[in-house]
Amino acid sequence: MNQVDYLRISLIDRCNYRCQYCMPEGTELDYILQKELLTKTELLNLITKVFIPLGFTKFRLTGGEPLLRPDVVEIVKEIAAYPQTEDLALTTNAYFLEEKAQALYTAGLRRINISLDSLDPTIFNTIIGNRGQDRWAKTWRGIQTAHQIGFDPLKLNVVVIPGVNEHEIEDLAALTIDKQWHIRYIEFMPIGNSELFQARAWVPSEEIRERIRKRWGLLESEVKGNGPADIFKIPGAKGTLGFISQMSECFCDRCNRVRLSADGWLRPCLLNETGQIDLKTALRSGVSFPQLQQQVRELLNIKAEINFKLRDKGTQTGLYTRTMSQIGG
Ligand code: SAM
Ligand code: SF4
User: Fold this and answer.
1) Cis previous bond, 290, omega within 30
2) Which of 15, 69, 92, 96 to mutate to test the pocket of ligand 2 (most atoms within 8 A of CB)?
3) Could you report how far apart the first and last alpha carbons of the chain are, in Å?
4) Which amino acid residue places its CA nearest to atom 10 of ligand 1?
5) Of the candidates 72, 155, 67, the residue with the CA atom closest to the CA atom of residue 116
């Protein structure tokens, strides 16, 4: 069985965008109340007294939009300083990155993933739920700032939605030719977006690769990631192209991660909700750290079973009751 050593941490479930595929407009979202969010101290205690002793060394901060969390820089600084931390990354929509990139870098963050689903400001604005025509430019400035400061790797996440941004697959891939950026095409998943998903369905990674292959050719990259992405590159390009194919391919046997929601639920699998543990309530009711460690250890022991046996059930029955922003994508 794969060693599970990667914790994805949702810092907050709220977001300043309402992406059509993530938290579509019109969906009622029960935002977590402030008092139910894990505090910085609770989160750091869980990391140092539960997860690190269990062998976790890789951490990703996500959300919702993690840069909405006022203490994000302090959290980065603490986690980056632990000697056991081998890898710390952050996923953001980049709206606040222009202002925050330098502080995050100084705090020790080096790896960043930014969602960029379109190079066209109007399409971008439609995808993010019409938050304002200026949003693309601000996101782009955030990306440029991160690039200038030296974040490496700088990865751009693209969810390909048929009929919306599908025609930009090649234009987005072309960004990797001159810059050492990494574009990652994520297959669109039916989580919290049933109307859009049923109307448009998804584009398989192989179809995206075929289009890129036709234009430039495509090589398998010698660099292998430590996650589920299959990595390729356009011949001669500085950057790479990653494909995350959770719909067309089952990579459960390679899964090395669990997810901690902003209100402290530990979730063993993205695609179903079995086995979750409410770490925050346990912590606040005085359960000791060794006992919490034991609960998490037991969950890790049954994780493989949960992944394999329940994956399809979740996808077929629309079992998901939380959106990606709530789970921490
Ligand atoms: N707000 C940040 C952002 O957008 O980068 C971080 C949180 S977001 C939930 C993390 C990632 O999940 C993003 O790259 C987003 O594109 C992806 N995502 C959200 N909903 C998705 C869906 N239904 N299918 C595939 N990817 C999705
Ligand atoms: Fe917000 Fe990220 Fe979800 Fe878009 S994908 S609504 S930016 S959390």
Assistant:
1) no
2) 15
3) 23
4) 329
5) 155
Contact at 8 Å (CB) between 96 and 72?
A: no
β-strand partners of 278:
265
In this prediction, residue 209 has a pLDDT band, given cuts at 50, 70 and 90, of very high
3-state secondary structure of 183: strand
Q: Whose CA is nearest to atom 20 of ligand 1?
A: 22
| Residue, of 189 and 211, whose pLDDT is higher | 211
- 6-327 to CATH, choices 3.20.20.70, 3.40.50.1000, 3.30.70.20, 1.20.272.10: 3.20.20.70
The predicted pLDDT at position 319 comes to 44
Report how far ligand 1's centroid is from the alpha carbon of 286 (Å): 34
pLDDT at residue 228, as a whole number: 74
What is the Cα–Cα distance from 171 to 323, expressed in whole angstroms?
A: 29
